[in-house]
Write a structure and sequence with these properties.
This protein is an alpha/beta fold and about 475 residues long. It has two domains: about 220 residues, Rossmann fold; about 260 residues, UDP-N-acetylmuramoyl-L-alanine:D-glutamate ligase, CATH 3.40.1190.20. Helix content is about 45%, strand content about 15%. Helix 9 packs across helix 17. The two termini are about 15 Å apart. Pfam families: Carb_kinase, YjeF_N.
Length: about 475
């Protein structure tokens, strides 16, 4: 499991560790890891041109000590000091002692900075780290702009300066890094868009922090998914493996039903039961589906329901499904039609799977505000509905209603932004629910397989949703290794 911790937790762990270590030891560990990453990026350190962007805190201190290490290996290092009178004193002395140069504020500062950054091979962003709040201040923002326009590789120290560490929000100008070298643990902002996009690839340097059991954010890895996937035993028959009911599609949108069933058939349930007006389309594509033309309440036993994809305005199917005392996944049109009080009153688990636009409608805010604040939005929806919520998008998040750790899916790909892809995911995650996974596991394992399947199916070229469904088996095999 990859985990991310909040700034507050990092600060606490840092204090405890610092109390046991000689002064400055922690910063030296950070700087050593940072310098090693910079050397890897440069390839050849000797003779390279390195520019450090140095703010007023310890983040700048890390950059200065790492710069000193690079200078000792023969790099030409210049530090641009954004707050000369408050620069980390030890770091500054180390850099100067190693032969590095400094440029301080005043007339001509930005002109000189532009020239230096324009000629640099590497820019190290030590403007601000976990102590930062709000977008970058004007001079810092100007330097970030120079870095973005130069051919230099940009390495961010701990976080790209200007992004919110705890939320992944970006409130103004921020540094665009190629690589972020982060210390002790990932921060939520490194895993959640839009901040994630500013981080580039992320390298974690272990500095010995002792972190608590409960993280802020966690991302499943292959082994975590493998441990949760349902496996049929010798005693299994189709009913013991779980039957997933799909109440989806309409005369207008029969395809949504077909795609939800295609996902459900690949999710591990023993059988898929379909209820709705698209039975002919479903059967002709997937003859193994059990179909019923009675409503969900009389369709026969299921261990979990999926309701909503392509449902149009069929509120009665949604209401009937929500009455069932089995886990229910509500997606697409179903989200609009589901009564909030009914969802809150359910005793069996409920999993809501909105994309940003649907989440915005449920919260009564704009789509942009959900996309800009994904973590807060998914938590708010989970709390309001008393349900597990999977917020789809460039970084899919899964939150349980009681607060607690939020899951982030690491396998997403932009190719999944294709019509019907969400229907496949709802069937897949519903099938996992029917197999006995918790709502949070069904959502996060479903999203993981779906993302991986999207990558396999796309392989660098556009895909249709049915290709994604077909590639779920490859993803499953890959995970089981
Ligand atoms: N935790 C650990 O285990 C370890 C932590 N380490 C390192 O320490 C870093 C944290 O250092 P930190 O606490 O000194 O804060 P930091 O991020 O340098 O920023 C504070 C300064 O920035 C300024 N500032 C604020 N917002 C701004 C903005 N938007 N735009 C521009 N400036 C802004 C603010 O100025 P002020 O508001 O006072 O004017 C303040 O002085 C951490 O990220 C990691 O790199 C490692 O060395 C060792 C292990
Ligand atoms: K930084």
């Amino acid at each position: 499991m990859r985990t991310a911790y909040s700034v507050e937790t990092v600060r606490t762990a840092e204090r405890e560790l610092m109390a046991r270590l000689p002064e400055g030891a922690l910063m030296q560990r950070a700087a050593a890891g940072l310098a090693a990453a910079c050397a890897d990026v440069l390839g050849r350190v000797y003779g390279s041109r390195v520019v450090l962007l140095v703010g007023s805190g310890d983040n700048g201190g890390d950059a200065l000590y790492a710069g000193a290490r690079l200078a000792r290996r023969g790099a030409g290092v210049t530090a641009l000091l954004l707050a000369p009178e408050r620069t980390h004193a030890g770091g500054l002395a180390a850099l100067r002692g190693a032969g590095g140069n400094t440029v301080t504020g005043g007339d001509g500062f930005l002109g000189t900075a532009q020239e230096l950054i324009g000629r640099a091979d590497l820019v190290v962003d030590g403007i601000v780290g976990i102590g930062g709040k709000g977008g970058l201040r004007p001079d810092a923002a100007t330097l970030a702009g120079f870095a973005a326009g130069s051919r230099a590789v940009v390495v961010a120290v701990d976080l790209p300066s200007g992004v919110e560490a705890d939320t992944g929000e970006v409130l103004g100008p921020a540094v665009h890094a190629d690589l972020t070298v982060t210390f002790g643990t990932h921060k939520p902002g490194l895993l959640i868009d839009p901040a994630r996009e500013y981080a580039g690839s992320v390298r974690l340097v272990d500095i010995g922090l002792d972190l608590p059991e409960r993280a802020e954010l966690e991302a499943l890895q292959h082994a975590d998914v493998a441990a949760r996937l349902p496996a049929p035993g010798a005693e299994s028959d189709k009913y013991r493996r779980g039957v997933v009911g799909i109440a989806a599609g309409s005369a207008r949108y029969p395809g949504a039903a077909v795609l939800a069933v295609s996902g459900a058939l690949r999710g591990g349930a023993g059988a898929v039961r379909y209820v709705g007006p698209a039975a002919d389309a479903v059967i002709s594509r997937f003859p193994e589906t059990l179909v019923s033309d009675l409503g969900p309440a009389r369709a026969g036993r299921v261990q979990a329901w999926v309701v909503g994809p392509g449902a149009g305005d069929d509120a009665s199917a949604v209401a009937e499904v929500l009455e069932a005392e089995v886990p229910v996944l509500v997606d697409a049109d179903g989200l609009r039609l589901a009564d909030r009080a009914t969802v809150r009153g359910r005793t069996a688990p409920t999993l809501l799977t909105p994309h940003a636009g649907e989440a915005a409608a449920l919260l009564g805010v704009s789509r942009e505000s959900v996309e800009g604040a994904r973590l807060a939005s998914v938590r708010e929806l989970a709390a309001r509905y008393g349900a597990t919520v999977l917020l789809k998008g460039s970084t899919t998040l899964i939150a349980d209603p009681g607060g607690g750790v939020v899951r982030v899916n690491p396998t997403g790909t932009a190719w999944l932004a294709t019509a019907g892809s969400g229907d496949v995911l709802s069937g897949l995650a519903g099938s996992l629910l029917a197999s006995g996974l918790s709502a949070s596991d069904a959502g996060s394992v479903g999203a993981y397989l779906h993302g991986l399947a999207g990558r396999f199916a796309a392989d660098g070229a556009p895909v249709g949703a049915h290709d994604v469904a077909e590639a779920v088996r490859d993803a499953w095999r890959d995970v089981m290794g």
